[in-house]
Amino acid sequence: MNRRFTIEEQVEKTLNSLDGTQRAKSNPFLFTRIQSRLHDVDNSRWENFARILNRPAFAFPALILVILMNAVIFLQSNEQAQANGIQEEEQMFAKEYTVSQGMEDWMLVVNNDELP
Amino acid sequence: MHKGSQFLPGTKRNSPIIFESDYNKLISPKQSRLLEQELVDRLKNGDELAFKYVVETWQDMVYNTALGIVQSNEDAEDVAQEAFIQAYESVSQFKGDSKFSTWLYRITVSKALDHLRKKKRKKRFAFLQSLFGTNEEEVRHTPDFHHPGVSLENKERSAILFQAIEKLPENQRVAFTLHKLEGLSYQEVAEIMETSLSSIESLMHRAKNNLKKNLTEYYQKIEKK
To answer: How many CB atoms lie within 10 A of CB B168?
Structure first.
């Protein structure tokens, strides 16, 4: 019984051991440290962005995308060049046979010539 | 010009602030509110001097709260720095529904708990690594924590109490630390933890019961030895 009381007393004393505790003092240079940390945060944002760009998971798909876009642009410009070429040929053909108007007029002239 | 500028000389950006260190005792609650509002406005405008004032006024409060929860001087300083940075960056979210110090307490508690969770995760990972033999480092247990504000006669007992506090669930730990180490009333603790007064009373009751149970087991083990 006496032993039990002693333990209870110890527990009670320990529970109350924080009574009257003074507030712990922080580092007097806390503000300076926060300032430098805020500066680091600004820098690290750009560093993080650069790190993301350098990641293979980002870099390889980005490279493939650029190559694909180049290929699409090249193919499109090629098609356009071909279309321009055909148009030029038509114009040259029309010039050669003095067909200044449209195709319908030309056909009419040809048909009239064939009439007796 | 803001009404509270009579307490805050110079409302221009980066103009000096002449505050009393414990202005709450010197001026009325209404004046204190106006002063706080002006401080928040200046913080929102990115005024560095206002931020310096905030750090210098509340750094001990933030540090002591963090220290009580994380139980390590280095970790508490890290948490304090993180809490002030978070406050600076998210001051626009401060609506003025509570006191600025209450808002700061909330940020500190949340940062301290995040820190503890990260530490636990690291410990678990280090333990797993040690099981597979990939981590040569020994999994260390935190040494006895001695709070610098405890009187010499209570030093040993408080270290035992802190070990018991470490085993408490998060919310009981926070409520007990705020009440015992920061000397806050149950009402103030309830405001910080955004809960009712009766919940805090119940939390404190359970915290004390758990601590008693842990301490009894501790002293029984000592007696057996």
So the answer is: 19
A7, A17, A41 member nearest B220 (Cβ): A7
Write out pLDDT tens, residues B18-46: 444 444 455 566 777 778 888 999 999 98
What own/partner pairs with CB < 8 Å and gap ≥ 24 does B66-70 have?
B66/B108, B66/B111, B66/B112, B66/B115, B67/A24, B67/B147, B67/B181, B68/B147, B68/B177, B68/B178, B68/B180, B68/B181, B68/B182, B69/B109, B69/B112, B69/B113, B69/B116, B69/B173, B69/B174, B69/B177, B70/B112, B70/B115, B70/B116, B70/B119
Of A3, A11, A17, the CB nearest to B212: A11
* 8-state DSSP, B92: G
ipTM passes above 0.85: no
Q: Which residues of chain A have a CB within 8 Å of the CB of B219?
A: 7, 10-11
Closest Cα in chain A to B88:
A38
B80, B66 contact by CB (below 8 A): yes
Decide: residue B225, CB within 10 A, 0-12 exposed, 13-18 middle, 19+ buried.
Answer: exposed
Distance CA A29, CA A37 (A): 12
The tens digit of pLDDT for each residue in B117-145 reads 999 888 887 777 777 766 555 444 555 89
Q: Do residues B52 and B19 make contact, with C-beta atoms less than 8 angstroms apart? A: no
Residues B225, B204: Cα–Cα separation, whole Å:
32
pLDDT for res A105:
61
Choose among B21, B192, B201: nearest CA to B108: B192
pLDDT bucket at A16, cuts 50 / 70 / 90: very high
